[in-house]
Amino acid sequence: VCCEVAHEKREDTFAATPPLKGIKILLHFNVSKPPYDKRTRQIGRWDVSVAFFHADIQEELYVRPPAGMRRPGWLWRLLKAMYGSRQASMLFQNYVVDVLVDIGGFIRVNVSPAMFHHEAWDVSLLVHGDDFLAEGPPKSLDAVHELLDEHFLVKQLPRLGPGGEKVGMFVGRILRFVEGRGFEYQAGTKHLPKILKLMGLPETGLKGADTPGSKDTDKNMPDALEYLHEEEKKIFQQVAGCCQYFVLDRILEKYSIKEIMKRMAKPQRRHWAMLKRAVRYMVKNPEMSYKFEYGK
What we know:
Elements: H1 21-32, E1 42-48, E2 62-63, E3 76-77, H2 88-103, E4 107-108, E5 115-118, E6 123-128, E7 131-136, H3 138-151, E8 154-160, E9 167-170, E10 173-178, E11 182-186, H4 192-199, H5 230-246, H6 254-261, H7 269-284, E12 289-293
Antiparallel strand pairs: 1-7, 1-8, 2-3, 4-5, 5-6, 6-7, 9-10, 10-11, 11-12
Helix pairs in contact: 4-5, 4-7, 5-6
């Protein structure tokens, strides 16, 4: 790992990531495509090790060797994209495109540059950092694995679906196969304990709320319009930020958190109460799942 200092603004460092709905699109493809009489389509997952080192660096860049390997007046010139260099993510993304499109025959999806489709193999695939997710017939997923294994240091995770595993993870989300019915997508919950800790609330025994928001939240608060102190404001902003990420694929709390985020600059005690109610609702309903059932 290195640390490249950003001395100037650059536009050549961007690397796309697919939206969470991309995972749901792949699950929808899986359950809605034929054959309908005998379900065989699976979900494949891969994890690339030391991802950035697969890509060649395209500029002259030098790093100081690690302690114990330094010599006076010597630097090391990078030949591969290194973690911590500003272009590393973009260079790895370009390498992925070269492998999938130029070598593998995939088509890059216009609306999401981190999603791909292979017409002949009948495979749809997305790339999230160094994690790959694909859906298609088992033999086509075998072909995807051969392609990835030839050009990446990659680990294939157990497949999900008929003849495979029932439960697996992808980018913190639980994907669950239900025999004869289809798939379930469960939103991530790992940030909830952090939110409770920041707010000073217990993980167990906290009374949940029936709704994520209410017009009566500050009804009996004499200090509702009082602004939070500086330290309280920082905690409010941290918790609200965590909640915003937590509800990325949770529908019911989105509006409440959106309203709370509007108060980030000058939060008042009533806004803290609004935030606490939304969190209490999350505690009562920690899991949210989307069902993708087989079509006829």
